[in-house]
Specification:
This protein is mostly helical and about 170 residues long. It has nine helices and no strands. The chain has a single domain, classed as Tetracycline Repressor, domain 2. InterPro entries: Homeodomain-like_sf (IPR009057), HTH_TetR (IPR001647), Repressor_TetR_C (IPR004111), Tet_transcr_reg_TetR-rel_C_sf (IPR036271).
Length: about 170
Amino acid sequence: MQPAIELADGEGLSALSMQRVAGKLGFTTMSLYRYVPGKAELLDLMLDTVAGELPLVDSVPGGWRAKLEAAALADWALYHRHPWFLHVTPVRPVMGPNGMAAYDAELRAVCGIGLTAREVLAAVHLVDGYVRGAARLSVDAVEAEQETGVTDEQWWSERAYFWVWRDF
């Protein structure tokens, strides 16, 4: 998985192909298909491999807030290390062993504080959704700066006159 992850990290998802991954491994493309049926399955394996970088936050000292904060910070860092992760994670993600372990740890962190099972899910998903959205904006701003040479601050400053007349 590491060569595929490195390729996506370095060149983006558009550079990811079975042929490129096989080449990085020193194999033919067809030989790679003995291990991974296709690109969709490769992406699933990549997602779960990267999810293995997340700490199991139920072991973080402190209460549920400290644990969810640790999960949020770990997710933020993961999204910035692997920006492609934000572009391939489906609404209902594939849950391999690493992804399930991280998700279960987050759920356990919130269990036992008086919430129903549905409320526990909602609390974890609320934090995850917020972090994912904020990270997507942050990662997109970094990518836009790399592509254009214009920082996010410069871009907004150059458009400030649109809002000058408004009284916010």
